[in-house]
Design goal:
The structure is a single chain. This protein is an alpha/beta fold. The protein is 42% helix and 14% strand. Strand 10 and strand 11 form a beta hairpin. Helix 4 packs across helix 8 and helix 12 runs antiparallel to helix 13. The two termini are 40 Å apart.
Length: 494
């Protein structure tokens, strides 16, 4: 794979722009969605009109029966026959111990003592860290604190135990469930694929049932945490009256790169320790006590395209050191994937007027004037909170700019990046925990959870808050520091 010789010191440059969101190739999807909504509104107006006329003109009662039957079938029976609701009962996030904290100065001093890194690589990593948006409180595995770092399988397993056991126990404690109550177990980790699998390790540790449905996902990248939730959603559609736990983590010691290939040094600089456990269910009796109800899911991938497929690859460098290469095509292919995902999501959840404006602008750009700008719909009309990928400061800001979001909308993602770093697949749950700790999540609020991963893949979840969420500032990963945030970045202070 071609190295990123032109990779700038800013690890995550512009990803999405206002003028190109959403893609013109999705015009048919927007029109289809708009027509469907128009048909629903027309049907409702027709039923109301027939009912009004039947009263005014004293028509035969059969007309009353016809209109009421239509209303009953389309607006009452159809929702009742829909698939069961999926709920998030609760979730937990791992808070690394203080002895794992790695300030920037310590990271660079430590790296300078490790033989493979030359002076140019140290300077390059210093520039990456300066522009990344990470603060001084992020954490790395204890195995990486040795000189040289310990790269043994047993150390990788120890880190997995260190992260997964506490979040699993915290989640079970909060929900007052026994491990034997769990019907489905899904674990995702891209950098470590052990044997026995991580899911088997959890089953063995907690003596879970012999008929539990367990899954172990690897190689799915930063979006794996939400993708695992998507898998749990699909399984809960089939297995009635069940509980599913998703465990999401990334083993930093297994992903460490000891070499001087610049295209692989990004992973060392921005990825940090983290893990999350999420309990989902389809039990209707949990409707009132669960935190969130799933409203919408959209999943997009572009692995069929060779350029996108090779954008991030785990491979060896010329000296045999294993690391994740980041291609200069990554930004463009991720932008295309994100645009497609957002366009489809918008066609599903946006108000009719917003979809109509967007559809008209896309039609004009494609068939009338290529230079015309595509209307960017206002997602804040239906979404109150945004959980964006905590991948990098510039990336978060550009996605926010493309979606016309304010500083408050991107605050949770930026502060998660600053406090905990990029925790890969579990980052989005720390962002959601931030919103809860700030007590911004109100009953009826909708939150959009966006995940982007290697492949590339992009997935969107829209959740509705089921109940007021209070008291989270006293527990969870933000318990001892939530009052310190938000903070300004250096470039904002000037």
């Amino acid at each position: 794979m071609e190295p990123v010789s032109r990779l700038s010191h800013d690890p995550l440059p512009k990803v999405i722009t206002t003028n190109t969101l959403p893609s013109g190739t999705l015009l048919s999807k927007h029109l289809h969605s708009t027509l469907l909504e128009l048909a629903r509104v027309s049907a409702l107006l027709l039923v109301i009109s027939i009912e009004v006329l039947s009263f005014l003109r004293e028509w035969n009662p059969i007309f009353h029966l016809f209109s009421l039957s239509c209303f009953f079938l389309f607006f009452i029976v159809k929702p009742l026959l829909s698939k069961p609701h999926i709920y998030i009962v609760d979730f937990s996030c791992f808070k690394p111990p203080n002895f794992c904290r790695v300030p920037t100065s310590s990271f660079l001093e430590h790296s300078s003592m490790i033989q493979p890194f030359d002076r140019k690589s140290i300077d390059f990593m210093a520039k990456l860290l300066k522009s990344s948006g990470l603060g001084e409180q992020t954490h790395l595995s204890p195995a990486l604190c040795y000189i040289p770092p310990i790269a043994h399988l047993q150390e990788f397993i120890k880190e997995a135990h260190m992260v997964l056991f506490p979040v699993m126990e915290d989640l079970l404690s909060k929900t007052k469930l026994s491990p034997r109550d769990i019907d489905i177990l899904i674990i995702n980790c891209s950098s470590l694929c052990s044997s026995p699998s991580l899911s088997s390790i959890i089953i063995n540790k907690y003596s879970m049932r012999d008929d539990i449905k367990s899954f172990n996902l690897s190689g799915m990248g930063c979006s794996a945490g939400i993708l695992s939730t998507h898998l749990a959603q699909n399984l809960l559609k089939v297995h009635k009256n069940s509980y599913a736990i998703v465990l999401s983590t990334e083993i930093t010691s297994a992903g460490w790169y000891a070499g001087n290939d610049r295209s692989k040094l990004l992973v060392n600089c921005i990825f940090r320790m983290g893990g999350a456990a999420i309990l989902l269910t389809n039990k209707e009796e949990m409707r009132k006590t669960s935190k969130y109800r799933l409203l919408q899911t959209v999943r997009i991938q572009r692995a069929f395209d060779d350029r996108a497929y090779l954008a991030t690859v785990r491979e060896e460098d010329s000296n045999g050191a294993l690391g994740v290469s980041v291609s200069h095509d990554l930004v463009q292919v991720v932008a295309e994937t994100v645009r497609s995902n957002i366009a489809i999501l918008g066609s599903c959840i946006l108000p009719f007027l917003e979809k109509f404006k967007c559809g008209v602008s896309m039609f004009r750009k494609r068939y009338i004037s290529k230079s015309a700008e595509v209307y960017v719909p206002d997602f804040k009309k239906v979404i109150q909170h945004f959980v964006l990928p905590a991948s990098g400061r510039s990336w978060i800001r550009e996605i926010g700019k493309g979606l016309k979001l304010g500083k408050r909308d991107t605050e949770a993602s930026l502060m998660t990046l600053r406090r905990f770093g990029n925790q890969s697949s579990s980052s989005s749950w720390y962002v959601l925990a931030y919103l809860e700790a700030k007590e911004r999540m109100k009953k009826g609020d909708k939150v959009w959870q966006l995940g982007i991963g290697s492949g590339p893949k992009c997935i969107s979840f829209v959740w509705e808050c089921n109940r007021p969420i209070v008291g989270e500032s006293m527990k969870g990963p933000w318990a001892d520091c939530i009052d310190e945030y938000p903070v300004l970045f250096e470039d904002e202070d000037k």
